[in-house]
## 1
Amino acid sequence: MKQDSDLATQRIEFGQRIKRLRGEKGWTLTDLSERTGLAISTISKAERGIIALTYDRLGQLAHGLEVDMSAFFTDAGKGFARGSFAIARKGDFQRQETDNYVYEMLFSDTWNKSMLPMMGTLKARELYQFEDFVRHSGQEFLIVLDGKVTVHLEGREAVNLEQGDAIYFDSGMGHLYASNGDNDARILVVCQSADAVAAPRND
Amino acid sequence: MKQDSDLATQRIEFGQRIKRLRGEKGWTLTDLSERTGLAISTISKAERGIIALTYDRLGQLAHGLEVDMSAFFTDAGKGFARGSFAIARKGDFQRQETDNYVYEMLFSDTWNKSMLPMMGTLKARELYQFEDFVRHSGQEFLIVLDGKVTVHLEGREAVNLEQGDAIYFDSGMGHLYASNGDNDARILVVCQSADAVAAPRND
DNA sequence: AGACAAATTTTCCAATCGGAAAATATTTAA
DNA sequence: TTAAATATTTTCCGATTGGAAAATTTGTCT
């Protein structure tokens, strides 16, 4: 059997979170039903982890509860919580390789971080075989540790950075990095993924 | 009105977000299928907004894509103006000096950033004259560019980091850095400032 | 204690999801 | 160009969700 229990556990935790949110507002199932447009029975079952709501219903539920959907998932229990820390030694970064670059995700096994730091190596001489700009939510910070790098931002002129230079930009703009010198370039990138930003606790 | 089209629209946007995440990693449906345990057809349909995934599948998908679930829901870059960027040249960091260390704030004139990158120099052999732990909200990332650094986290044992090592922690725990070698140490710190991140919903 | 009202859970079934495999579509090779 | 390989979409159908209403539980009076 698969790790059914794992999924079930998640569902139950999710349900309890919903129930707590409803409780905080002092609403009954009927109240919430009216606000969300979901059937009472559906909410009841969801709160007890009997069913797994679909994306659509999750959206309605969030709207009715007047919370952002991420409130359902940023969970004060596991992952990167208050008072936690993680160390990444030079060696044990998790390596990921694509045609154009190699990057190592730091702390890839730590969840719920609000920042995603990565070390990257941009191969020299790779002329722009790049398919397309990269685009994602959040903000991004890049500093050149070694070599020369050209940063392409969609609709802007290319920016040349030398060792020690840095750039900060909205990750929503199409972006692309390439080594610009004779050698490989070494960069450090930190993405801020709008998710999982430490939620204030209630105590 | 039971805005059906609204739900459909949301689903489609969701699907496109998934597809982009997959694209960024250069994965095929088959790749992602293996990483998530979901059927290829399921992912295909989800990406096109044909079906609304359940909570369970969303969890598997997030795990496979190595993102936090809330990444699926939070829309693109808020706060920091969309389409903006800023460059900091090696020279023109704004220097700030204290007894124990020197640090240079990058992009100090750029508002609304959700991350605060700083370069720091920790003077050698400054024995711990430190007053007190530093504490603030958010999360913090530190990487040692040069030298040896000891990171003190309140209530924990001190952590020794060498060049290339990194640490990620909740800024709420009292923290403190010091050089640990014979020479000055050079570090890069990125703080995630909880403000300017949360954004209201618009509907 | 009762009766009544309100909140929650169960039941039943239509609608929808999700997986395996077949059918297309797209890319790569020759 | 055709053939082979790879990637994606469709089809089919069993499994699960989600809603309406009935059944049950939990309160709240008197």
## 2
Amino acid sequence: MSGTNFKQQLFAQFARIGKAMSNGNRLELLEFIAQGERSVEELAKVSGLTVANTSQHLQQLRQTGLVACRKEGLKVYYRISDNDVLKLFGALREVAERHLDEVQELVRHYLTSKDSLEPVAHAELLERVRDGLVTVLDVRPNEEYAAGHVPGAINIPLSELEEHLDELEQGHEVIAYCRGPHCILAFEAVARLREKGFNAHRLEDGYPEWQAGGMPTEKE
Amino acid sequence: MSGTNFKQQLFAQFARIGKAMSNGNRLELLEFIAQGERSVEELAKVSGLTVANTSQHLQQLRQTGLVACRKEGLKVYYRISDNDVLKLFGALREVAERHLDEVQELVRHYLTSKDSLEPVAHAELLERVRDGLVTVLDVRPNEEYAAGHVPGAINIPLSELEEHLDELEQGHEVIAYCRGPHCILAFEAVARLREKGFNAHRLEDGYPEWQAGGMPTEKE
DNA sequence: AAACTATTCAAGAGATTACTTGAATATAAA
DNA sequence: TTTATATTCAAGTAATCTCTTGAATAGTTT
């Protein structure tokens, strides 16, 4: 039956997108690329893969239309091809965070393990802020920050973190927070900041919990 | 570095979701399930797979949290676990339709091949409607239908098609339309209706083109 | 209990995937 | 032209995936 045949061919094509996203290294590359155009070399470096391997993954992403590239001189720069790819990535992430026990486990483990993340309690944070010892970093999107945030916090959405590192003082301690304990924005911010040499920590819970706990807030 | 390790483990988990969606048969099953709870046997039948194979695919979907199931007597009924799974599927579909040439090719080929789909032109449709010969079927979501539709068209979103087949007369010719030439809702409706024995056809283009072409419209 | 049914489990064959290694291209600099 | 650099290509290996087949399990009916 040709209708069925069409359907199967169609789903086989859809599956190519799934396949492109079925490898952790490729997803990591995709996320790096989502932060802005990157060359193969840069991507290989941040992902820890060999250049050849990186190149092969990138070509798979390209063949399914998830990324596009342009050549400039010796280098080839890869970028996300379209906004809908980010939406897809976000949807995948959400499903994973909500339905995979392993993800929740993983987040909980890393967020609570002392030597890797040390969350900072609410009261403790206020003290440190008063003493002028810390920079509080809100990594949520601009709109959410504008709707209310921790007093004195500066806003750098996670996606723009690398470009705005100059707003943070190297010596200063940085405390990052986001939406809540299940939101991994803050974790990622801390991980990235630590890679850059910052003394970064994570706020226990997120803004909703801060607010619900009766702590002071501030609006734009 | 434990931060990097966390990240890689996290992406490896995300990749499990991609892997679950990396097979055409599984995606087809997922779509059937999205239309309502189905037993393994039913799913095996509509997909054309063996029962054992179907069961194995279903378990993969279940292990990644995309579907859930309940047992009732001898049968096991599978359902979509959550709305966010549908969002993910929709996002994947959109990316595939917009970025894979093969999908566009496939749709164009099947949509234009005479013996399988025969699109109906705008002017021709109006004539047939006037003569009371056809039922015009709008397969878009309710909101879109409410915002404007082809005069006299009835609205059955694709996802509810099977449940509302009684609104269509068997003998009557059915002309389906959706958002546009790249939207495959209408094609699927036609394919499914034909499987059920209806004399179904597809409207050339979709509602935006109909409107843009200066044809009459109607609102809720 | 015995027979039946829907589903799952287990093992195996063939295809596909991920990564490595070393060579091949293509562009830029000397 | 020669040399250097960034990327891609190609071949090979180990691991994984899909599907088939036949048996095992769990629940229903007789």
## 3
Amino acid sequence: MTIQTTLTEAVQKAVAHLYSAEVTDKMIQLQQTKREFEGHLTLVVFPFTRMSHKKPEDTAQEIGEYMLANTSEVAAFNVIKGFLNITISSTAWMQLLLEVNSDEHYGYVPVTDASPLAMIEYSSPNTNKPLHLGHVRNNLLGSSLARVMEACGNKVVKTNIVNDRGIHICKSMLAWKKYGQGETPESSGKKGDHLVGDYYVSFDKHYKAELKDLMDNQQMTQEEAEQASTLMQEARQMLRLWEQGDPEVRALWKQMNEWVYAGFDETYRQMGVSFDKIYYESDTYLEGKEKVMEGLEKGLFFRKEDQSVWADLSGDGLDQKLLLRGDGTSVYMTQDIGTAKMRFADYPIDKMIYVVGNEQNYHFQVLSILLDKLGFKWGKDLVHFSYGMVELPEGKMKSREGTVVDADDLMADIIQTAKETSTEMGKLDECTPEEADEISRIVGMGALKYFILKVDARKNMTFNPKESIDFNGNTGPFIQYTYARIQSVLRKAAQAGIEMTDTLVLDTPLNLKEEELIQSIAKFAQVIQEAGADYNPSGIANYIYDLVKEYNQFYHDYSILREENEQIKKMRLMLSTNVGKIVKLGMALLGIEVPDRM
RNA sequence: GGUCUGGUAGCUCAGCUGGAUAGAGCAACGCCCUUCUAAGGCGUCGGUCAAGCGUUCGAAUCGCUUCCAGAUCACCA
């Protein structure tokens, strides 16, 4: 039972007793008291003036007096206008600290067999290009959300849908076949996904050259040239062969995809993300066709003259939507329906969450309606966790202009920068080279992840690869640094032979900063729930920063190990231990590691 | 044009189930390392919360209108 809920009930009792009126939880606004006033929690009494028929000040005074007399946690109160500032007793705070201290996973809701199952899809790469900055935001948000949902008491299945088929894949394959001379990741030393990506670019280059040639020398228009292009025709032919299951094409496809997956695995590992179940579009698109045909038979969809299949969503205020082309091939939507079908068969899904950029808001609106029509129980309230674009200072990333920030390069750069900075500050002087590398990795990745996750997911964000990553202020390293310092204090306490205890009785009251710190620590449970309800991890990031900043001020103002009163010293060590614990738990929800020293 | 997002300090962002004088960091300028890690702490400077109207005891927060920016409305994924 938190202090918040204790007080909420106390207020309800007070109002019932004083004014014989029922009050709902919603009407009770208990907020943290502003710094400039005395007290911990403030009750806004304006809503109760209607029941008391008295001035706000008098109402507050009466409620305050009643609570002081009847609630042991309330130590004092004062009234300013319509605000009742309540001071919680020192012993109540101490009790709360002990409670937090005794719970290794404070704030996490345990997952049981009866917990609902949430499936979270994220990443969703194409196999013809390496991952870039946009994918980084997607992966970090997705894996963080998965951890948050789990902490909120859901069974979680992390899933990935790989787009491994289509004309774009054939382009890479064709280019490799024509110009590759048997190049492999081993022979070139390139990462598999980069190697394949290079051939995708190579196709585009040759294709452009062919178009230019046709237009210049054959007097063709752009459109005619695109039709006449032998390269494009060959790519289309390759796609047809692929669909027919041609052994040679399939073998090449398999080979190149394996290279790509090996490359992706490395990127995922460095990013610290993983999946429980991976789906491939090459498996799901046929299922989608089947499901659509099923819907057609049931009369949910209709066929046009050219044999294409459509859904009429005008009843839902939307347009008609294509589900199968005239030649029977599938479109994006068909594949998503097929993927949903397979997932539904594999897991008892209660909630499906798609982590996909906001440019696809319309797509998911449609998908939700279609899945609902097709009888998926979670279709109607599927969650599209829609996040904003990552923009560069020059504007959007454009592959054609070469302004795409590659995920692997980005991570390597930031880790290198962390290493240089740490070395300059002499932080790595006493480390072995292996330790130095490990700390640099943790700090660099921490900076990157925190920078991206602290921003509200819905919003577009600006990312300056050169300047944005800072190690001071509201950053990952600042939080990691504070954590490392806490661990240092705890090590020194252990060396000094100070025993940690589970119980502690103080003969002197806590000071205000200590009480506020306990209050901030305890807020963690609420923050997790809010992040889960909003499907947005940014609140956790900002909370941890506030907590750490508050602890730093405390750390600066009060000595811990130098404190002479043994009981107070132990209490402060317990306080520090728990700040460290919350920071570690919170950062874990963001997928950020914290080092014991740095 | 329709629909959906967003607009808060020079910059990057918090705050949004309505509550007290709108907060951080960066940048700029001062101060603090003989004291538990200075990736730190303290201070100064910086705001018409895009604009207007409305709802009410009270609006950055809710509603309407306007302006600006982005996304989307494909037989692309």
